[in-house]
Amino acid sequence: MLSCTTKSLSFVRNLSIHEYQSKGLLKSFGVDTMIGEPAATPAEAERKAKEVLANGSGKLVVKSQIHAGGRGVGVFKSGFKGGVKLAESAKEAGELASKMLNEVLVTKQTGPDGRLVRTVYLEDAAPVKREMYLAILMDRGFGGPVIVASTEGGVDIETVAHTNPNAILKFPVDINAGMSTEQAMDIARGLKFEEKSVPQAADQIQKLYNVFIETDATQVEINPFAETTEGKAICLDAKFNFDDNAEYRQADIFEMRDPLEEDPFELEAMKHDLNWVTLDGNVGCVVNGAGLAMATLDYMTLAGGKPANFLDLGGGVNQKTAQEALRLVSKNPNTKLMFINIFGGIVSTAMVARALLEAIKVVKIDVPLVIRLDGTDCIEARKILKESGLKYTEATSFEDGINKCVAMAKNL
Ligand code: GDP
Ligand code: MN
Known about the structure:
It is an enzyme of class 6 (ligase). This protein is of the alpha+beta class and 412 residues long.
């Protein structure tokens, strides 16, 4: 619950892209990754594998492309183990691809539903000596970018943070000055590169920082950041998130959005300029204003209820936004009760009441409805609702609304 509300705090949705796309981006900034090709069918995978083998080292990695980590140790619903596998021939790569494509991969990060694999990435396998961790993220505490580095890579970094926190190094970067060569060398030494390898590793780290800044990323995570048997630093995995507010100047990156990987409700809401986050409860919430929406979730949870979503209608509620909001909440199969919680500060609740009634004519609502209209013109607003013939439970205050929802939800 806490994480859900925190998630909606900033309203940054942080676009994600696939690993193969991330690697394309890295290459364009001079960051070293192995050569590779994506494929959508086993036949295509075998063909692409041949190409990669012809130009590469003679071994391949077949990697399931989903917007979630932990693929290496993930398990397919078919029972097949491993979303990242080594292959020695194009034929083997094709066979592995047929076990991954159109199958659902469950990892620590996907949740029990898993994710359908629609693309695999055929990548030249690197000769790995050791696996490290390197991430660049915007950090509130430092008020700028921070490099997180650890020699304990390839594994779940949360586990390392828990069992061996000293193994995680943090390097704040002055965003105005950028990353100096000295700082990049410090990081490389922190990652225990041998002195002769430090300049190349530092150069890679500096370039990674440049990608992060130039693409308006909120996070770049390279796990593993590896050292090859020749002592060269290379990125074996790449996970990016980008600031959605930067969409207007990062058109090429936002073209890579994969709607199939995103929450359909969130996408639908985005189309109508509404903010939505799917939660795991059963009370659908329609609220005006982000602050009140957050408070509604917290209050309901404290009172023993379970919100099914976060939804902020925005300040100026009109018939169109009301309609889209009600449509979304009704469409959610988990909504068993709906709570409309509107406080009119600038907006007249009488106007909101009329907009709601018009919207309800278009959107059929077949769950019990609790409505609280408070603030500007609320006497008139409540009268409008009462005289409309609409079936609903009236709440006269925020508290009253919460209590009624929680009591009604108990009897569902
Ligand atoms: P994740 O499990 O979703 O994080 O996927 P990764 O891309 O990190 O791959 C999982 C693991 O596969 C890595 O930690 C490596 O151990 C291994 N791996 C990935 N690429 C290569 C490669 O090119 N060479 C070798 N030897 N191992 C690799
Ligand atoms: Mn990884």
